[in-house]
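job 3f2a | input accepted
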Amino acid sequence: MTTFAQGHALLIGVGADLPNTIADAEELHSFLIAPDRCAYPPAQVQLLTGEGATRSHILTALDKLAQASTPESTVVVYYSGHGYQVETKDVSTTHYLLPYGYQQGTLQKSAISGAELLQKLQAIPAQKLLLLLDCCHAGGLDDLPAAKSPALEFTKAPLPPEAIELLAQGEGRAVIASCTEGELSFGGDPYSAFTLALLEALDGQGAAKKDGYVYFSDLAAHTRQKVPLRTKDRQHPTFDFRKSDNFIVAYYAGGEMQPKGLPFKVEDVVIEETPGELRGVGQIGHRITNTGSGAVATDGGVAAGEGGVAIQGDSHGPITLDNRRDNRRINTGGGTYVAKDVNVSGGDFVGRDKKVSGDKIRIGNISDSKIGNIGRGTGSVTTSGPSVAELALLFAPLMQSIQNAPADSRPEAVAAAQELVTEAAKGSEANDETVAELVTALAKAAPDAVQALVGLFAPAALGKLAGAVTRFALRTIQKQ
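job 3f2a | predicted structure (480 res):
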C-alpha cells in the first residue's frame, strides 16, 4: 500500500435538521484517510460537521486548502447541507450554502454566497479539483413562515451558477451535484443515496479500469446509475467537467488492484421513501436499533431499558424518558442505576441514594393527569403527542447545542428544555403561548442552540406543535 500523497480534501456535513449529513461526511472522511482505501494523508483531509461547520470555519478551511495545496495536488471539496437560490423583490438573485448557525435574516453575513465560494475555490492552485454538492435536502428555509415572504423567494438549488465559472477556469475542474434542478436529495440511515453511491465508487465498484485508481468518470457514472435506482427514479445526479480531462481522484485499495469491499452491508442502509422523512428523528451520531420491546438500543452511547429510552453521550447532553408508571431501572450511562422514584425538578436527576449532578434532563413517570401515561400499561391514556422514543431522539441535537451555553445561563437553558419536553409530550394539548415562552427563554439562555431549536420545530419533527405564537417566536429568535 502507498500513500496518495497529492490528495487534499475538505468534507462538510452541516447537521442541524439534517443529522445524516454528519454521518455522510464522517464516512467519506474514513474512506479518504484509510491507508488501504483512498490513502489520503490524514493531515491533509479536513472534516467539519455540526457546530464545526459554521460559515467562518468553512471559509477558513478553504483558505487552508489554498495554502496547503500545489498545482500538482488533487483536491476534493464535499458539502452536504442546504443550498438555496434567493430572489429579492428587486429581481436580484443570490445562491447560498447554509452552514451551521445561519440566520435567515442575515444570510449575507451568516451563509456563504455562491460568489464567495467561487472566490475561495479559484484561490486553490490545484490543477485537479472536484466539487461534490449535496444541497437539495428537504426542510431548511422551507420550514419557516418567513420563507413565504412576498419580498423574498426561496428556491432550492442543487448547483450554484458560480460553479460553472469554476469550470471555465481551466482544465482539471469538475463538479458533481446530487440531483437536478427541481429534485430533492434522498437522505438515509445512516447514509444518503448520493453518498452511498460515492462510497461504492471510492471502493472501486463500477471502476472502468481495474488499475487501482478512482477516476472522476467512475464517480460520475456510478452515482448517475445507482442513485435513480434507489430513489425510484426521483433523484438524478448531474455532473459537468467541460474542459477537464478524466483525472484520478484517489486510490480505491491503497494502490492495490483488488477492491476491499464496503465495511458495511448495503442492504442495511435505509434510503428514505420521501425526502425529509428521516430528518430530525433518525441519525444523531449513533445508529438506532429497535429491540422490539418498546426500547431503543444503540452502539456507542445510547442505552435503553424495557418500555423506555435513554439517550446518553458526552456530546449530546443526556435526555432520559421513561414511559412506565412504575420505573424500576434507568441506565444513567455511568454504571449507576437509580431505582424507584425520580425527582425531575430542576436540572438534576435524584433517585434514592444517588444524586447525579450536571446539565441533564430526566423525564420519568410522565403520568400525571395533565399529560397521561405515555406508553403501555394499565390505565394508560393515548395522547396525540410524539412517542417517548421520538421525543428522546428529537431533543438530542438541542441538548448537544445547550452544552455550549454560557456556564451561568446553562442551568436556565436545561430547565427550559425540560419544560419543553414535558409540554411537547402533550401533543395537540400543548399550550402555544407556553411553548413560545420556552423557545424564547431557551434562545436567550443558549444562543448557540437557536439553529437546533428551529430544527426541532421543522415539519418532520414538532412542526404541528408550533402555533401562531410559537412561529412568531421562532422568527424573532432567528433575527436576533
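job 3f2a | The chain has two domains: 7-271, 288-479.
job 3f2a | closed
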